[in-house]
């Protein structure tokens, strides 16, 4: 009897051992299969910053391309190695790419927010590039460009920034940009609104304002920063515009213009003549032109006096003459760090935030 019980005990023990071994083997097989066929769990998400971006099979410049994604596409981040990132597309394609070419969700939200606000900003004039021109997501030469502006296309100039040339650090990555070198070159950037409503940054020196040559000949090597039509006259079989423009002589500066000038078409002499010219200004965007109830062109602009006080000046254009009608102090609103441009938080007391001036201009429409 005792011998039978001993056999039964050994049988149960061996069966439990066999079951445990089977479970262990199944776990090993499953783990091997998961490693071979499974999907890595994402550790984050990002968006494509440049116009087109190749994903590569391995961490090598000449590795096969597994997929090509475009600006704004959402990606899952699977792994990071220094500045490189392994990502997965929404279609399940995986590959390695440069993490500098990706936007965090916060960075993408900011870009979309700025683009949406830019749709409603006043144009400072249309401009075209001399050659195919990259449009960047930030005013930095090393930042990704999400599209290009062709020489036969034009865009509305709606803003401007001067930045110290330096490395590009994507927003939301936790990386810290090195302190700016005070001896580094400064770049003059223009914020442009494209025909499809999107906005981005281009180098100002590569743009040309779309004014007639018979007017631009008077620029005398000064850069035209804004222009507006003040009306038209008929001369023989041609229609000629009266123009107001602003120019800057010593770019790059944090202000947008140092001179304003008005040209009218003389129908007797059949040429443009200057009827108003003011120099030595420190003027800021936005310059706006609208019309009073009787149809008179009205110009508003911001300028800084010798005392360092900013004022909003209003002019009326009547009978081919420009006359100032109002000059009131302008108070700079508080700048939200989330909305400040790269050079706006460390500016001098007299250098107003561009977004702040826009907010003030919009508010003035309701006063």
Fold and architecture overview:
This protein has 367 residues and is of the alpha+beta class. It has four helices and 22 strands. The protein starts with a helix and ends with a helix.
Structural key phrases:
SH3 type barrels; disordered C terminus; 5-stranded antiparallel β-sheet; 41% strand; alpha+beta
Secondary structure blueprint with pairings:
Elements: H1 2-37, E1 44-48, E2 52-56, E3 65-70, E4 74-81, E5 84-88, E6 94-98, E7 102-103, H2 105-118, E8 126-129, E9 133-136, E10 145-149, E11 155-164, E12 186-193, E13 199-203, E14 207-209, H3 213-216, E15 223-235, E16 238-248, E17 259-266, E18 271-278, E19 283-291, E20 297-304, E21 310-318, E22 321-329, H4 354-364
Antiparallel strand pairs: 1-4, 1-7, 2-3, 4-5, 5-6, 8-11, 8-14, 9-10, 11-12, 12-13, 15-16, 16-17, 17-18, 19-20, 20-21, 21-22
Number of strands: 22
Query: What's the oligomerization state?
Result: single chain
Number of DSSP helices? 4
Largest sheet: 5 strands, antiparallel
Distance between the termini: 107 Å
Strand order of the largest sheet: 6-5-4-1-7
User: N-to-C SSE series?
Assistant: HEEEEEEEHEEEEEEEHEEEEEEEEH
């Amino acid at each position: 009897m005792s011998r039978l019980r001993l056999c039964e005990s050994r049988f149960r023990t061996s069966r439990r051992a066999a079951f445990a071994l089977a479970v262990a083997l199944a776990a090993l097989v499953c783990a091997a299969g998961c490693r071979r066929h499974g999907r890595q769990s994402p550790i984050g998400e990002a968006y494509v910053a440049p116009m087109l971006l190749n994903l590569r099979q391995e961490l090598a410049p000449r590795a096969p391309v597994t997929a090509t994604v475009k600006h704004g596409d959402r990606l899952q981040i699977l792994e990071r190695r220094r500045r490189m990132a392994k990502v997965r597309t929404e279609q399940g394609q995986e590959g390695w790419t440069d993490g500098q070419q990706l936007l965090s969700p916060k960075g993408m939200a900011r870009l979309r927010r700025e683009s949406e606000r830019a749709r409603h900003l006043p144009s400072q004039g249309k401009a075209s590039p001399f050659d195919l021109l990259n449009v960047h997501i930030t005013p930095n030469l090393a930042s990704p460009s999400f599209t290009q502006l062709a020489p036969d296309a034009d865009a509305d100039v709606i803003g401007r920034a001067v930045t110290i040339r330096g490395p590009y650090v994507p927003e939301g990555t936790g990386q810290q940009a090195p302190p700016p070198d005070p001896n580094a070159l400064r770049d003059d950037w223009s914020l442009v609104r494209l025909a499809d409503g999107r906005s981005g940054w281009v180098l100002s020196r590569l743009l040309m304002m779309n004014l007639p040559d018979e007017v631009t000949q008077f620029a005398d090597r000064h850069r035209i920063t804004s222009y507006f039509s003040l009306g038209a006259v008929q001369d023989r079989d041609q229609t000629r515009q009266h123009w107001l423009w602003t120019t800057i002589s010593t770019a790059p500066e944090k202000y947008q213009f140092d001179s304003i000038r008005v040209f009218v078409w003389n129908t007797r002499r059949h040429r443009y003549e200057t009827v108003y010219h003011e120099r030595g200004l420190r003027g800021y965007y936005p310059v706006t032109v609208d019309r009073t109830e009787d149809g008179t062109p009205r110009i508003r602009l911001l300028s800084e006096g010798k005392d360092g006080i900013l004022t909003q000046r209003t002019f009326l254009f009547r009978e081919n003459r420009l006359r100032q009608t109002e000059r009131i102090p302008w108070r700079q609103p508080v700048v939200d760090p989330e909305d400040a441009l790269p050079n706006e938080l460390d500016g001098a007391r007299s250098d107003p935030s561009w977004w702040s001036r826009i907010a003030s201009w919009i508010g003035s429409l309701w006063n």
